[in-house]
């Protein structure tokens, strides 16, 4: 198997050796992983685009591009600036107190070799001016002898100051992510970790940031009392504690309510149509006339909920996904659960008098102790369901299709 040596496009330092595998796509993927870039093209040192692995020879040198054009390497006389009249020796070799100049994006910075080497000895700048290793980094110089680096001078300055005194000082007009990208490019690991923390803390909350209990309560207090609750359609309440609140008539259609706590909350006549209530806690909640059509309620805890409205309004949960839901001891008389999926759910001791369970998937449900008087179970899947200690006998007229354990 052949191997090649790869560098970032335009750079002759920090190369990696990779194996040439079966396809060009595999080589690009491995090159991108090794160099930390999105590899899309390979070039020869002469700028030729590599499109066939058969053209490669063992130990070929290749330059990896993220899609940009090939950047030619400018040959320089290592040890002397390109300015012919300059008598200076190469500052990359010699005393740590020697001064060097860097031309970063057109702006010249002056510093000492010790500043570039001491704080981050494994960084690109340290390797560029270190006496150790086979050879220093080959970089072009301008007419004054300053080493040319094609990066942003605005974001390089805080990086250089960090190497000088170990502190990160960020001007108010600078984006921390810009400094983070420079730190990654130069391989200054300690600064990368520091800037990642700053960048995370500096992020502005997005439009989908979960709404807090305080924000909802403040909105409720400023809303006139009526039968038309707040419109929270499509909003994100993930993980929010909304326990013991009066949320009647609220509109949570399409809302994100994963892991939300509704313990003891009055949710009567609330609209949860197609909302995501995965793993939500609704223990002891009041759900008179609630609307949960096609809601996703998988893994939720709904023990001791009250769905039974004395005024005759029925909760509608048709087509809801309710796998592994715990409804133990809930009052669900007249609830519409047509074609709902309740597989592996716990309905023990539930009051399901007059409930509509036609076409519902009740496979492996625990329905022991349930009251199913006048419930509609036509076409329901009762395979593996536990029906012991029922308060009223289950008549065959209530179900059809007794296939594979369906009763």
H/I helix tally: 7
Biggest β-sheet, characterized? 4 strands, mixed
Oligomer: single chain
Summarize the amount of helix as a percent range: 10-25%
Q: For the CA atoms, what is the radius of gyration?
A: 34 Å
- By helix and strand content, what is the structural category? alpha/beta
| Uncertain residue segments | 74-89, 399-407
What is the arithmetic mean of pLDDT?
Answer: 83
Give the strand content: 5-15%
Distance between the termini: 64 Å
Strand order across the biggest sheet? Answer: 2-1-4-3
Topology of helices and strands:
Elements: E1 3-8, E2 16-19, H1 24-35, E3 41-43, E4 60-65, E5 99-104, E6 107-112, H2 113-118, H3 124-129, E7 147-149, H4 153-165, H5 176-186, H6 189-202, H7 213-221
Main attributes?
single chain, 407 residues, alpha/beta, four-stranded mixed β-sheet, three-stranded mixed β-sheet, 7 helices, elongated, disordered C terminus
Describe this structure in words.
The protein has 407 residues and is an alpha/beta fold. Strand 1 and strand 2 form a beta hairpin. The chain has seven helices and seven strands; from the N terminus they run E-E-H-E-E-E-E-H-H-E-H-H-H-H. Helix 5 packs antiparallel against helix 6. The longest helix is centred in the middle third of the chain and has 14 residues. 17% of the residues lie in helices and 8% in strands. It is elongated and about 95 Å long.
What would a concise description of this structure say?
This protein has helices at 24-35, 113-118, 124-129, 153-165, 176-186, 189-202, 213-221; strands at 3-8, 16-19, 41-43, 60-65, 99-104, 107-112, 147-149.
